[in-house]
């Protein structure tokens, strides 16, 4: 891996927790209420992996700082772009192949190379 290598980063899944002091379920607006109904937070089941990040991925990115040895390059960082295109600096974690060989735990962030020859 080198600086500028294209990657796809998969954020770790984090189950949503109850809102502190929520006092019960989220109220749903009346169906005939005027205007657009708000979408409840964490509707997809996982909060964004970083504060301010939109979406839960997978996110495209470029290697910013390569580190470690193949195949995982542990310690590498990448700039990934969230669902609205905002950049975030992330730790890459393990490669998708290693992740799959470990049983594909959803709580582990992983990444894969983008194959530009396809």
Give a short overview.
The chain has 118 residues and is mostly beta strands.
Number of distinct helices: 1
Q: How would you characterize the largest beta sheet?
A: 6 strands, mixed
The best one-word shape is elongated
Approximately what portion of the residues adopt beta-strand conformation? 15-25%
Number of strand elements: 6
**Radius of gyration, CA atoms, in whole angstroms:** 18 Å
- Based on secondary structure, the structural category is mainly beta
Strand and helix order: EEEEEHE
Tell me what the structure shows:
- The chain is mainly beta and 118 residues long.
- The protein has a domain at 1-9 and 46-118.
- It has 1 helix and 6 strands.
- Strands 4-3-2-1-6-5 form a 6-stranded mixed β-sheet.
- The model has no long low-confidence stretch (mean pLDDT 80).
Write the layout of secondary structure elements.
Blueprint: E1 6-10, E2 59-65, E3 77-81, E4 87-91, E5 94-95, H1 96-101, E6 110-113
Parallel strand pairs: 5-6
Antiparallel strand pairs: 1-2, 1-6, 2-3, 3-4
